[in-house]
Amino acid sequence: MPRQRLLPLTAATMSALLCLLTFGAPVTAQEQASASPPPAGRVTVYTSVTQDTVDAVRAALAAVAPELEVEVFRAPTGELDARIASELRTGGVGADVLWLTDPLSMERYQEDGLLAPLTPAVSAAVPGAYQGQTFVGTRLLNLVFVAGADVVDAPGSWADLAEAQGVVIPDPGFAGSAFAALGYLGTTDDYGMGYFSSLKDHGAVVVSSPVDVVNGVAEGIYQVGVTLDQIGRSTMEKGAPVQLIWPEPGAIALYSPAAVLADSEDEEAAAAFLEFLVSADGQAAIAATGWQPVRDDVPWPYAGPVVTADWDELYGRQAELLAGFDAIFGD
Amino acid sequence: MATPRPGSRRRLGRPLAIACLVAAAVVLVGTPLAVLLRTALEEGPATLLESSVAAGPAVLATVWTSLAAAALAVGLGAAIAVITERTDVAGRGGLRLAMLLALIMPGYVAALGWLSAYGPGGLVDDLFGLEVSALVGPLGIVLVMAAEAAPIAFLIVVAGLRTRAEPDLERAARASGASARETLTTVTLPLLRPVLVGAGAIAFVLSATSFGVPAVLGIPAGFTTMTTRIYRDLAFSADPASFGEAVGLAVVLAVGAALIIALGDWLLGRGASDRSGAFGGPTGSMGPGPGPITPGAGHGRGHSALLTGAAWTVVVIIVVLPLTGLLATALARAPGLDPAPANWTLDNFRAAADGRTLQALAHSLVLAGAAAVGVISLAVLAVTVRRGRGAGVVGGLLGLTFALPGSTLAVAVLLTYGASLRDTLLIILIAYLAKFWALGYRPVAAGLDGIPPDAYRAARVSGAGAWTTIRTVVLPLVRPMMVAGGLIVFMFGLHEVTMSSLLYGPGSATLAVVVLNLQQLGDHGATAALALVLTALVALAGLPLLRRGNGAGGAGWRLW
Predict the structure, then answer these.
(1) Cα-based distances in Å from A123 to A40, A97, A307, B99, B416
(2) What percent of chain A is predicted at pLDDT more than 70?
(3) What CATH number should be reported for the domain whose range is A141-253+306-329?
(4) Domain parsing of chain B, residue ranges
(5) Scanning every residue of chain B, which has its alpha carbon at the shortest distance from the alpha carbon of A200?
């Protein structure tokens, strides 16, 4: 059903786009936003983004668009995708906007024709590397190293890590963010799946989530681990005996994508929500909760060099990569 | 088996009860399972077969860890139950309360509690330099799952001791010169057999569908069970093949667990004799328990001290230390700090007291209460209708949805009722009823099996109608089991998070969902704090009962 509805919708959007290109080409996103009245309506957001980030964005949005009512269903990635899968089979997804943690499932929803095309304002706000045809990055999650505060010779690069002792990594089968490391390292010529064999040979251990990595390192069970920068930093700031290491040649970055559903009942309001997410205000709200904004013109004090996996290339290879990982780390 | 049949003078009650049951079975079990199976088959029967075969090692891992955990749980639970109900052990009220407290810890939290108590960098490590490194891996999974199921086995056996075991028989055995141990092995335990089987079945399925324990303790050891595998598939459910595999494996798990239970029922039930002749006559088990019958005042003081020591050791190991570990985690400002007041904070408890939690607490109380009442009503209906026969079909059918992992059962409920009931409290209640039905049914059924058919016959012969007999003879006798079953369901409903986190909507969030959502991707501190807040709530509710019981003629703590 979504596929059938997509056709006229695409046509409508295309003609709208054409109109815009013809008559309004020089209008930038900013000017357009200030020219039109504040958006109103009702948006339901399905998200796996942390609650404090969602809350911060809602609060900032309420200040500029009080008439835009936002309902949120938040669940961990697995539960969220399972709910979407169930709803798809029983009359359609109940959300207007999806705001997820990693691009993989978005790629799938895009391929199945569930997502509406991006509006030009959204598309223009974000670097091209951090968007697909129908979804846009909202924040960057950086996979970095966390080491015990008293560890002196902690590895400084991804290459060093493969030879290090007492390493802990998050399970790529559980967390989409952890899959980014498998995706990047496993498919890049410099590393390949042999990288994980080396980790295993040196005694590396897999735990379920990036949070467990930080906890295990803090408690001194492991020397060094792979985790998300925001989690490592917030735990360190609470006083845990850990240090954060930005690895060479860069943190493995993945972007947390958002998209409007093609059969949204209030597509205008949904698009307005997406526009706010990538606006300077929305990005500042996201940055305030510790996540790196996807726009480089929004200040963020912790930025370092990043490397990224080619998500288009990874899409469709999850099962193969996970099977390879299990062959190395399974019992 | 001599089965009392109500005469031909059948009232409207029985067909009505059967109709209610059939409707409930269709709504709660049949339809969701059929929908799940259809969804799995849409990916092709070959895919389902293939993934089941590929899941072989995970299936094996689930079966043996769950069987071991169930055996251990029933052994521990029954031993402590016999000690608190049949000996003059010191501090029995405390023992009972401690077991009750352990019941409130969800598996994930229990695993964290064990890790923070016994793992590297844990409480015992900090204090004594001792750590149990085997805690991560299959051994730890068995231990923690057993510790998690033991309180349920305990509750069921305690209720069973009050419903089934006839203290008059025990007293008779003792008076005739049997030793305490002989009385236990030749009178008490044989009478308890159906109760032990029921408790074992519940412990087995709880362990087989436990996700939190293997997720925390299995993954670091590369040890995969069915539930962690299914969750992995579910995490990639944007891919229809992955989604199909997840629901397919869940159906395989449910059917497999139900088969194992049916087999166990059959094997263990074969030797059960009809008690009508040997143990006829109404029982004296109404009212307070018989009090201590084992080591009397005359002999075995040392024996009693030994029992007291053993029982308290077990309770300290499986309840007190993990709870203390949790407290340390909940109080810690950050992970990895020494357990010292300078490093303590109440921030994690503040998160549990967020403004949003009040409404959610109300939802949780309503849902847990409704689930408990609903489950017990259905269980009583089921056992009264099939009075006198083995657990059989009803038990097996109920086991089916109970044996589905929570995430998959929630998917089934959403697939079946989502179109009309999405985001309502009702859809969450349906999931709770489907999941917890067996939890309430098993104890009630086990209790009912213990009622001497003669009691029923006597009532009927004296002119009581079928309904009057049920109301005046059957229900009073199974009341302890009803209360125990209802209590278990209520506790599970209160801390349920897997199904609710998939099914809630704006205005129907439950307490655990709200609090865990507030966490940073599963922050341990606040999760521990939530578990402790729930534990404290239960303790507060339990304490007055404890005190009242102790006042009542030394009969001990009377929750029912």
Answers:
(1) 21, 16, 22, 58, 38
(2) 89
(3) 3.40.190.10
(4) 13-269+302-325+343-551
(5) B222
**Residues 82-111 of chain A whose Cβ lies under 8 A from any Cβ of chain B:** 82-87, 89-91, 94, 104-105, 108-109
Put simply, the chain A residues between 16 and 35 with a CB less than 8 A from any chain B CB are none
Residue of B236, B348, B417 to mutate, interface with A, max A Cβ within 10 Å: B236
Helix axes B138-163, B189-208, angle to 10 degrees: 140
pLDDT of res. B529:
83
Q: Which of A79, A107, A83, A105 is nearest to A94 (CA)?
A: A83
pTM tops 0.95, yes or no: no
Please list every residue in chain B whose beta carbon sits closer than 8 Å to the beta carbon of residue A71: 506
Say which of A81, A90, A241 has its CB closest to residue B235: A81
CB A277 within 8 A of CB A57: yes
Residue B114 is predicted with a pLDDT of 85
Q: Which two tokens stand for residue B325?
A: 């570990």
Every domain range in chain A assigned CATH 3.40.190.10: 2-139+255-293, 141-253+306-329
Amino acid B284: pLDDT:
34
> What pLDDT was estimated at residue A9?
46
- C-alpha to C-alpha distance for B96 and B559, rounded to whole angstroms: 10
Evaluate whether B144 touches B317 at the Cβ level (below 8 Å).
no
Fold that domain A2-139+255-293 belongs to in CATH: D-Maltodextrin-Binding Protein; domain 2 (3.40.190)
Record: contact A89-B415, CB cut-off 8 A: yes
CA distance B185 to chain A (A): 42
Contact B237 A78 (CB under 8 A): yes
Q: Do B502 and A79 touch (CB under 8 A)?
A: yes
Instruction: Identify from A107, A146, A219 which residue to disrupt to test chain B contact, counting B C-beta atoms within 10 A and taking the largest count.
Output: A219
Per-residue pLDDT of B309-321, as tens digits, reads 888 888 888 888 8
Q: CA angle at residue A169 from A168 to A171, to 5 degrees?
A: 135
User: Which residue in chain A is spatially nearest to B416 when comparing CA positions?
Assistant: A90
pLDDT band at B521 (very low <50, low <70, confident <90, very high): low
CA angle B440, B246, A260 (to 5 degrees): 110
Q: Do the chains contact at B521 and A74, CB–CB below 8 Å?
A: no
Task: Note the CATH number of domain B13-269+302-325+343-551.
Answer: 1.10.3720.10
- Dist CA A75 CA A104 (whole Å): 17
Contact between chains at B518 and A205 (C-beta distance less than 8 A): no
Average pLDDT over residues A197-224: 92
More confident residue, A115 or B303: A115
Q: And the tokens for B291?
A: 């009090």
Check B414 against A90: CB less than 8 A apart: yes
Which phi and psi (to 5°) does residue A225 adopt?
-145, 170
User: Which amino acid is present at B270?
Assistant: R
Q: Does B418 contact A90 at a Cβ distance shorter than 8 Å?
A: yes
Q: Work out whether the CA dihedral B105, B110, B112, B116 comes out positive or negative.
A: positive
| Whole-number average pLDDT of chain B | 77
- The answer to whether the CB atoms of A211 and B521 lie below 8 A apart is yes
Note the ipTM here.
0.78
